[in-house]
Each structure stands twice: as structure tokens, then as C-alpha cells.
Amino acid sequence: MRSPVKTSSFTASLSPGAVGLLAMLMLMTTACDAIHAPIPDPAAAPKKVLRTRNPDANVSPVPAASPSPNPAPSLLPTTSAAPTTVAGIPESPIHVKPRQSHWLSAESSAQLTSVDLNQLSTAFHDSAVTDEAFAQLLAQQSGLPLMSTDLTAAKKLLRSLVGIRKSKLFTAPAGKVGSFDHLPNGFSNRTGIQYYLPASVNLAEVTQPVPLLFMLHGGGDSTNTYDKAKAVSISYLKQLIPFAESAKVIIIAPSSSIGWNLQTRGLIPEIVELAQSELPIDGDRRILWGHSMGAMGITREVGFLVGLFSGFNANNGGTQLGYQDKRYLKTYFNTHYTHINGLKDHFEEFLPLMRQVEAKTAALETELRLKSGFQLIVHGGTHAPDFALISRELSKLLLQPRDLYQKAIFPLYFGADYAGGPNSPAYPGLRVRDYFWLQSTDSLGTPLPSSTLSSFEARIRGNEIDIVTQENALKLSHFKLLLAPELVDLTLPVIVRVDGKVTYQGIPNRNLMQLIHTARQKKDPRFLYDAAVDLSF
Fold first, then answer.
1. Would the pTM count as exceeding 0.90?
2. Residues with Cβ within 8 Å of residue 239, at least 6 apart in sequence
């Protein structure tokens, strides 16, 4: 990957006026995993399954796969040298006539007739292009004032970039299962990324973004090698193809030979970001689904992924007691989470565990005077997934889009220099710092070999924001508060209190650079905030 473009590398090519404008920009301101069989073939006889004896364990008992003697290199796209134009921005390899995008109104499109959406989209998703360079290109092509506080047109333009990309990795024909290898950050063994692009959608001429179903397979002992895990992942994916075609959704199904343990909270966002940068995925309709071992992964990671997915569906798993703490259950109030269990599941401990979660969540609803997004569905089936039921519940989740502007949030922040475990690879610098509109900007305390967890509550009433620290709050001392008109009136003073003490009072500065930074930081054109306030306590 190229080094980030430095401002000094391109200022010599600019006019004095552009250099002055750029200088102004620079002054402006992110289980026990159950051991179980792979998804059964409906025509095959049921297979014997080992029952877990320790539902409170924190790691999977599945033996870890030995690292490959020749680990596959990362297949993340690399950027080759190319002619440059403005501010180090690569020139679009194929210049096409600008066309109206689904995300732009007719009026906005008429104002942006000179915009090359291909070039802007390439620059938007290229980490080697600085925010300042991208802002300059956007201003030159669109004519949007860089210092304006009216960011409506800029938001529409940023959203439009989601559907004007060409995939480099997800290249299998529509209607066929595709796969490529990926070497996640910190991993010593490759991960297979399986996917399915529905034939019912013409992605080359998409007129609206496409929902994503992200899948975590089951498997246990049957997935303890790379090849076995990949085969099981594909077997699950194929069962969901009818749903993908009828609901017009993209499926991404990574495979894991080491279970869905702690590293999952770093792996999943990495793959979603990769897919979002290459496919026209609807950022407001992304669902995480998992069965058995995959369901156990969801029960542990849902609290750290609520801002990434619009909904969760876990089948035939159970939330361990350690993850039934209030800090985790409160995150259910910021998402839609459906959990399915069968009365005849041979893992008899799963349903009682989920009954406990149901009761504790109901008690929290009374305490917080809010409605959670959690729902437990119990049917008369076994451990095997009921795909008819699953498809119906996934369809319901697609009708409930992600809401990045909720006014009562319950953040969890996590940090560790994870050294690895029996079934998890080392994941150095593993951090979860984002939760909707409240971000941690420090390192979550001094890097520790064990995990560091902090939790908070934050509520908005009118133009007043109250943040209440919870357990381990002293390990975090710096925050960035992201604001938008959907949250507060940005034309009036905003008051922020942390544990009752006023830490900010004033009218936040709205600017294009902040808008661009938050959108590109998450590689998510739906993650749009007009202003930011830095907080310390």
C-alpha cells in the first residue's frame, strides 16, 4: 500500500489561491463456542454431536488449526502507480460521462453536471488520499464551498459515491458462489471469504444500494482446518441462496477454523469495510446472522458491533453468564437483535440461558423506561437451523434500518494487545473506539495484555447532552462527540455534561472537513456528522 499522500507533495502544482484555500482546510477539523456438527444436509441422516459441558467458558474448545507453512498473502487491493492530477489524486482509469445517481436529487444532479463520480469514488475509498486532498478534488469538481455550513449537497454527493465502484475481489458472476483468501490484521493463518452476489440484482447498473447478510457458520470440530471450515461455510451459504435471490441481498460468509472468539470483533469490521468499498452495499441494511458456533460469536460480540449492523439474528446458541452483565445487555437498546432457539435442541443449556437474557432485558426496559431491540423466539425444532423461519425473521430485520442518530446510547469501548489464546490468533492493538456519535480518541488506557472494557450512558434532550461514566471509566479520558442536525439544533448553543459537570457549552463548528473525515474514517457514506466536539474529563 502506498504511503498517505502528504500535503507538501502536491502544493507546488497548485495556484496561490488554491494553496491558501488548502492552508485554511488544514486548520479545520473515528464461549464457549458450542462443539457441534456442520449444517446437516436435509437428505442425510443426523450426525452425533458432542455436548458442551462448560457454557461459561470464554473460548472455543475446538483445536486451533496449525498455521500454514506458507501463509497466503493479504489479498487486499493494492494501488499501482498511476498518473496524478489534482493533489495527488489518481486519475480515473476510465473516464465516463457523469450520470445521475439514485442518491442525488434531480436538482442536486443538475448542479453537479461536471462531477466525475468514478474519480471521486476512487479517491473517497483510497486510504492513500488525504482528507484535505479529497476535499479539494470535491470542491473543484462540484463547486461546493469548502467553508460553507450548509452541507446538504455535500452529504448527498458523499452518499452517491457508494454505488459507483468496481470490485477487485468480489468478481464471481452473479448467481455463483465466489471465494478469495484474506489475511486479517495480526493473523498468522488465512481466512476464506465466501460470498454470493444475487442474480436478481444487476450490480453493474444498480439503481439503489443492496442489503448485506453477513454470515457466521457453525461447525465446531468439523471446522478445525482451513479446508473444512471453508466447506462448512459454503454449505450454509448455499442454504441461504433462495433468500438472497428473493430479498435481493448480498451474502458474505467468512470461514473460521478457530471459532468466533475475541478476534471476531476486529475481523468482522475489517471485512465489512472491504466489502463496502467494492460493492454497492446499503449501509443502513446490514445484518449479522450466525448459527450455533456462529450464534455464540454473536452473543459475545453484538455489543461491540451495534453501530456496524442494522440487525442481528442468532440461531441455536446461548449467551454466557459473563455476557449477561448490564453493560452488554444495555447495547440491545441500540439495535435489533432476534435470537432463535429450539425446544428440542440437544444443547439443553442454551434455552435456559436465553430465558435469563430475556428476563434481565425486560427488567432493564423497566429501569431505563426504554424499549429494547431484543426478541427471543422459541420453536419446537432441534439444533438444526429452520431456514424457512430464519428467512422470515431476516426479512423482518431488513425492514428496520440502522439508526445512527439515536438519542440514548449505551457505549462499550474495548482495548487490548491480545496475545492470542488456545483458539484465537494474536490480534495486536485490538480496539473498539466507536459507538454511534460518541468516540473514544485515546488508546483506552495503557496497552494491556488483558482486555480493558469501559462503558457509558449518553442521552440527548433538546440541546443538552448528558454522559454518565460507568465501570472502568477512568481508563478513558478523551472523547469526540459527533453531532448532526438530526441530533441537536446546530444553530443554537449545545451544553455537554459529563457526570453532571459542564464540559462544553457553545455552538459547534460545522464544516465540510469534519463531514468528510467521519465518512471516510468509517468508509461508510452513511456515517455523516456535521460537527465534532472534543471532550476531556
1. no
2. 39, 385, 387
Instruction: Give CA–CA dist 168/278, Å, rounded.
Output: 7
What does 56-125 look like in DSSP terms, one character per residue?
Answer: T-SS--SPPPPPPSSPPPP---------B-STTPBPPSS-------TTS-HHHHHHTTT--HHHHHHHHH
Give the integer Cα–Cα distance in Å for 159 and 155.
6
Give the 3-state secondary structure of 68-83: CCCCCCCCCCCCCCCC
CA 402 to chain centre: 11
The length of the chain, given as a count of residues: 537
Least confident window among 22-36, 328-342, 365-379: 22-36
Distances (CA, A) of 123 to 97, 160, 164, 250, 310: 17, 13, 12, 24, 27
Q: Model confidence over 40-54: pLDDT tens digits?
A: 333 333 333 222 323
- Residue 473: per-residue pLDDT: 54
Neighbours of 82 (CB within 10 A): 12
What gap in Å lies between CA 266 and CA 221, rounded to an integer? 23
